[in-house]
Amino acid sequence: MPKHKPHRKVPTVDMTAMCDVAFLLLTFFMLTAKMKPQEPVAVDTPSSISETKLPDAGTLTILVDPEGKVYLDMAGQHTRKSLIEDMDSQYPMGLSEEDRLRFTIAGAFGVPRNQLKSWLGLSPTERAQVKVAGIPADSTNNELGPWIHNARLAQFRMKQEGKVSDEYVIVVKADKDTPYPAIQKVINTLIDINVNKFNLITSQEADPNKTKAL
């Protein structure tokens, strides 16, 4: 009796579903990812052995460049919109509604109040190229204090409204070559507005005690 030879089929795997899932995940990450705004100045922070990590969100950052110029940046578009409305009301800067919307996404800024409107009118590329004077933080003309004070109040209101989860964590990021008097001005400003807790950003270096232990 002749043997019946079964017909062999090449096994196939339908990859359609896997491709759909892969593209779905890729689309999700593209839509939800947030680009980190470029800082207006390059700051080479001093090193330390501290291992304390800053939160990924909810920070108010004070940048101090090697020349001692002060810049300010804060997270949260809702907070920034409330902040600029308060500041323009207390210290009229002639900002339009379009200017205020630009401020919410402008990132770090370092100009006196009377130059903010013209700075906001520039394109992001022009802002990166223009030379700014920094936010005044002198005892005779201190504009940094009101910015920080009103930013904290705005963030507190946003927390009460349920738009943010935490109050601001204030961090100072200064270059290792920044003159100490410039940093002292920032610290004095924080003390004057009753901010006694803040963080200094440093780069990580090896702990010599742990190195010896190894």
Explain briefly what this protein structure is.
This protein is an alpha/beta fold and 214 residues long. 42% of the residues lie in helices and 11% in strands. Helix 2 (77-90) crosses helix 3 (97-104) and helix 2 crosses helix 6 (144-160).
Category by helix and strand content: alpha/beta
Arrangement of strands in the largest sheet: 3-2-4-5
Q: How many domains, as an integer?
A: 1
* Helix-strand topology string: HEEEHHHHHEHEEH
Number of E-state strands: 6
Q: Per DSSP, what share of the residues sits in E-state strands of 2 or more residues? A: 5-15%
Instruction: Give the low-confidence spans.
Output: none
Taken from the alpha-carbon principal axes, the silhouette is elongated
Distance between the termini: 79 Å
Rg, nearest Å: 25 Å
User: Helix fraction?
Assistant: 40-55%
Q: So how many helices?
A: 8
Could you please describe the fold and organization of this structure?
α2 packs across α6 (144-160). The chain has 214 residues and is of the alpha/beta class. The strands form 2 sheets. Strands 3-2-4-5 form a 4-stranded mixed β-sheet, with helices on one face. Strands 1-6 form a two-stranded parallel ribbon. It is elongated, with a radius of gyration of 25 Å. It has one domain. The protein has helices at 16-32, 77-90, 97-104, 113-120, 124-129, 144-160, 180-192, 208-213, and strands at 47-48, 59-64, 70-74, 169-174, 199-200, 203-204. It contains 8 helices and 6 strands. The longest helix has 17 residues, at 16-32. The chain starts with 15 loop residues before the first helix and ends with a helix.
